[in-house]
Design brief:
11 strands
Length: 620
């Protein structure tokens, strides 16, 4: 009993971390610098709401590491961090050893946390990124307004919050410029473009205001990458916009671009290359210090180039895994570009590569602006790649279905289900089904995660869990913003139809008992099917149960809590016939089947819910 109680408690802790703490921590990691008074608080928020919770979650369920340690990007990052820590052996001493281990550990926990976040809350990831970008947009608009009020020639925008350096500020402004640019290239609704285009312009103006030139190069690289990975009609428009914006920047801001020369970059790089030549293969060590005076009496602590920083600290041997995870990140994003989130993450990575050409150098650091150029994009790409290969994310391309084509398909189809707005489910001439999902308001969750795509992803996940579901054939996007999924139906009849056709009480009781066992299996596997009722459960030709109408379904990390089981039960109690068969005539059989898999407390809870659940019902 104590062991079961501990398991239940650990499950609830793991659920809370994966479903709520990690999304909150990641959201603040992305946007908190815009409003926090300093970086130290940003570090503490990341440690308390992302890094440490991830470590606790992994301690509770070490098996979660199994997929992560097979990801090439994570393996290369692990090798890079291990080599950096090994270089402490020949680097200068003096730094506390524990302090040197913390940054690599937190970096690796970023990868692990992103993996858990994408695996268990993939539905919230797009709204989360959008929300962080909105916070950045609002804050940047305020920064620009305040900057315009006091502007004098030669001034450079720094911004508020934790920003204290125009160059580092430009990384964040450019990061979110790249986000809005990606949204403009991938969004399917015009309403979103009416927001993303002005938002991108505002963030780009902020980059210009910082007076930093490297982010302009980085954004150009990001735009070219987007043209390549999303090649479509918008790519042509983006190429034209690049040319026009380049002309505008050169004509309007040429003095800002040229007046500071090369900012001593060439002199710094030359001196750093001489230092690298002393230990080209193994580097000077992760703990080594760097001070470069380019001849102006000012000592610079970074080589102003990520690749030179890697060579200086960990040498050519350390450079190999560093180059590998960059190249593999871009290659895997290209291969799996059907997923819009991978397009966004890879665009961030290209922006970071461009910005890192003439900025940075600290190879592994605490959370700060440089994380936006490398570790955050890489962690997202790794997490998305793992979960897409495991078919927890969308793997099929969404095709455009013209109105004329839909009308042609409908003209010869049989209407299976309809409402006041028209057909909802059609049986096509080839025997497949076409399920239509009406357009939702642009700001609802359905605009970020269309229900047709949820249907497809849920179907794939349940099939991997051994639960029969319809096979997805095609996904469609309609001209009016609606979506549709075409699937091969499961051969069988709904459980409601089968129970209605059975006249022998003993046979019906046995079937209800089997359904109780099936329902318990769903709950123990973490499947919360909001629309679970006897009309959405099929009895297949081989006697097994299958599920249909899967858009309204969610899979939790651990077995469902008692409260979620209660909510699932209350939904079934709304249907008069279902309630009579399951909870009145054959309740003992249902409980007996449920007890085969579920715990005693879960069975008792279900029994109490039935006895006390005199909820209003509707005739079906």
């Amino acid at each position: 009993m104590q062991l079961r109680g501990f398991s239940s408690t650990s499950n609830r802790i793991f659920d809370f971390i994966s479903l709520w703490i990690l999304p909150t921590g990641f959201f603040l990691l992305l946007c908190a610098l815009f409003f926090l008074p300093g970086r130290s608080l940003h570090h503490k928020l990341f440690y308390g709401l992302f890094s440490i919770p991830t470590l606790i979650a992994l301690c509770l369920r070490p098996r979660e590491l199994k997929e992560l340690v097979r990801e090439p990007i994570f393996i290369a990052t692990l090798l890079f961090a291990a080599w950096a820590l090994l270089s402490l052996a020949w680097g200068p001493g003096g730094e506390p050893l524990g302090g040197m281990f913390k940054p690599p550990l937190h970096t690796l926990l970023l990868f692990a946390g992103c993996y858990l976040l994408v695996r268990y809350r993939s539905d919230i990831l797009q709204p989360l990124l959008f929300g962080a970008a909105l916070v950045a947009l609002i804050a940047t608009t305020i920064f620009l307004f305040m900057f315009a009020r006091v502007y004098e020639p030669g001034m450079r925008l720094i911004g508020g919050g934790a920003f204290d350096n125009p160059l580092l500020s430009s990384h964040l402004f450019g990061f979110f410029s790249a986000y809005w640019l990606s949204v403009t290239m991938t969004c399917k609704r015009r309403q979103m473009m009416w927001l993303s285009l002005p938002a991108m312009a505002i963030m780009f103006m902020a980059v210009i205001g910082t007076g930093s030139r490297t982010p302009l190069v980085a954004l150009t690289m990001a735009a070219l990458w987007l043209c390549f990975i999303c090649w479509n009609k918008r790519s042509v428009g983006l190429l034209i916009a690049l040319v026009l914006s380049g002309v505008a920047v050169i004509t309007q801001f040429s003095q800002m671009i040229t007046e500071r020369g090369d900012s001593y970059r060439l002199e710094i790089w030359q001196k750093v290359l001489h230092m690298i030549a002393d230990h080209p293969w193994i580097g000077h060590g992760y703990s080594a210090s760097l001070a470069v005076d380019p001849g102006n009496g000012i000592s610079f602590q970074e080589p102003h180039s990520f690749i030179l920083g890697v060579l200086y600290y960990v040498g050519i041997i350390g450079l190999l895994p560093w180059l590998f995870f960059l190249l593999w990140g871009l290659l895997s994003s290209w291969r799996q570009r059907v997923q819009p989130l991978l397009i966004i993450a890879s665009t961030w990575l290209v922006f970071g590569i461009g910005a890192g050409l003439t900025e940075g150098g600290g190879i592994i650091s605490r959370p700060k602006e440089h994380w936006f150029l490398l570790w955050i994009p890489l962690a997202l790409i790794a997490a998305l790649g793992i979960n897409q290969r495991a078919r927890r994310l969308l793997t099929q391309p969404v095709q455009k279905l013209a109105t004329a084509d839909l009308e042609h398909m409908s003209s010869t189809a049989q209407i299976i289900e309809e409402d006041g707005l028209g057909p909802k489910v059609l049986r096509l001439t080839d025997g497949s089904f076409l399920k239509l999902f009406r357009r939702r308001r642009w700001y609802t969750s359905g605009s970020f995660n269309p229900y047709s795509e949820r249907f497809a992803v849920n179907s794939e996940q349940l099939r991997k869990m051994g639960i029969p579901t319809p096979q997805i054939l095609n996904l469609y996007r309609l001209d009016d913003g609606s979506s549709a999924v075409q699937y091969a139906p499961l051969p069988g009849h709904t459980l409601r139809q089968v129970l209605q056709s059975i006249t022998a009480p003993a046979v019906r009781q046995a079937l209800v008992e089997r359904f109780g066992k099936f329902m318990a299996q769903l709950h123990e596997k973490g499947v919360y099917f909001r629309s679970l009722h006897l009309g959405n459960v099929l009895v297949l030709e081989d006697g097994e149960f299958g599920l249909i109408d899967l858009a309204d379904l969610r899979i939790y990390p651990t077995p469902l809590s008692l409260s979620l089981r209660q909510r699932n039960l209350r939904h079934m109690q709304r249907y008069t016939v279902d309630k009579r068969w399951l909870f009145e005539d054959h309740l003992d059989a249902l409980l007996q089947g449920y007890a085969v898999t579920a715990s005693k407390s879960a069975v008792e809870n279900l029994h109490r819910q039935v006895l006390a659940g005199n909820t209003p019902v509707r005739v079906h």
